[in-house]
Structure formats: C-alpha cells, structure tokens
Amino acid sequence: MAGAMKLDGRLLMLVSAVWTIGLIVTVYGISRSTESGKFLDFKYLGFLFRQINPYMFAAMGIAAAIGFSVLGAAWGIFITGSSLVGAAVRTPRITSKNLISIIFCEAVAIYGVIIAIILQTKVEYAPPLPGGGYSQATMSSGYAILASGLTVGLANLVCGICVGIVGSSCALSDAQNPTLFVKILVVEIFGSALGLFGVIVGIIISSQVAFTREGA
C-alpha cells in the first residue's frame, strides 16, 4: 500500500508539472506571435481573453465543477476501496463500518453535481451587442462561473484524495487495532470538510451572476 500511495503522489506531481509547463509554453507562444519584442505581451493576451465567448467560460466552469469533483471522488474510492477490500480478506469485521470512508468520497462527487446544477441554472441567453461583443455584466458572469467551477472542482479533487488516503489508513489501522477507528475517523471528517469550503466559496462567487445586456 505504501508503494501505491507514493505512485499516486508522483502521478499528481507529474500531471501538475505537465499542465504548468504546457500553460507557460502556450502563453509564451501566443505572446511571441505578435512580434512585439516583449517576452510576454499582456496587452495582446488580454485582447484574446476578451474575445472569448463568455458562454465558453461558463461551460468550462460547469465542466470543471463536475469533472474535477468526480475525479477526486473516484481517486479517493480507488485508494480506500482497494485497502478496505484487501484488509477485509483477513479481517472481515472491518467491512461494514469502514464503508463510511467510501460514503465520504462519494459525497465529494455529490458536491460537484450540486454546484454544476446551480451554475447551469444561472446561465441565461443575453443577445450580443451591435458591435458583436457582450456587455460587461455578461462577461463578468462568464468569468464568475468559471472561477466558481474551478474553485469547487479543485477543492473537491484534493478533498477526495485526502479522504481516500485517510480512509485507507483507517481501514488498515482498524484491522490491527479496533480502538483506533474512532480516532482516525475524526481526522477523516475534518478532511471531508475541505470540500465544503470550496462549495461555500463557489456559491458566494456565483451569487452575483447575471447574463444581461446592461452594463456595457
């Protein structure tokens, strides 16, 4: 199990590194395409950013909320479920009460589903302005939904991994010493609360969303 946990940590760092390097290369390449001579042409990058349809940002935010949340839940269930099933082969008594760790991981995906539904209900059609652009209210609403979805999704991703690793330790500890179950369960409860923080902040971010033509 220790080897599996190290593999998970290395995979997470690898994905983060590839994502960061890819983002830097993309931004640098777009900036250099202007032939302005600047290392990063923020004015041109801002221009490109403003030309993206706000509904694209909204769709990305909704997808991030549900996608990252489900990924975190699946990752957590994979970690804690494999340990639980393996330890239950020799100690069957731990199966029933340690299923609470699976429930905690599944709750992470439910958070993402709820927020995705809430964000989707806030998306309304706002006709573009005569010039082809969108009002400031519509643009800011798209940004807000993207920020809300990323906040909830990334918080739940980390929360799911945290709960999965702690739940795995809880199952293995309970198999050796039943008195440790409640003590480690308290740690698991605090770990599962991390996802709620992201949900609360995500709801606050999206509270002022309004897709209208006003505020141009």
Description of the structure:
With 216 residues, the chain is mainly alpha-helical. The protein has helices at residues 2-32, 42-51, 54-90, 99-122, 136-176, 180-205. The longest helix is centred in the C-terminal third of the chain and has 41 residues, at 136-176. It starts with a helix and ends in an 11-residue tail after the last helix.
Any chance you could write out the topology, listing elements then pairs?
Layout: H1 2-32, H2 42-51, H3 54-90, H4 99-122, H5 136-176, H6 180-205
Helix pairs in contact: 3-4, 3-5, 4-5, 4-6, 5-6
What's the gist of this structure?
The protein is an all-alpha fold and 216 residues long. The protein has six helices and no strands. 78% of the residues lie in helices and 0% in strands.
How can the largest sheet be summarized? none
**Overall mean pLDDT:** 82
Q: What structural category arises from helix and sheet content?
A: mainly alpha
- Secondary structure tally: strands: 0
Order of SSEs:
HHHHHH
Report Rg.
22 Å
Describe the global form.
elongated
- Could you estimate the helical fraction of the residues in percent? over 70%
Q: Beta fraction of the residues?
A: under 5%
- The quaternary organization reads as single chain
Distance separating the two termini: 57 Å
Q: Stretches where pLDDT falls below 50 for ≥5 residues? A: 1-7
- Tally of DSSP helical segments: 6
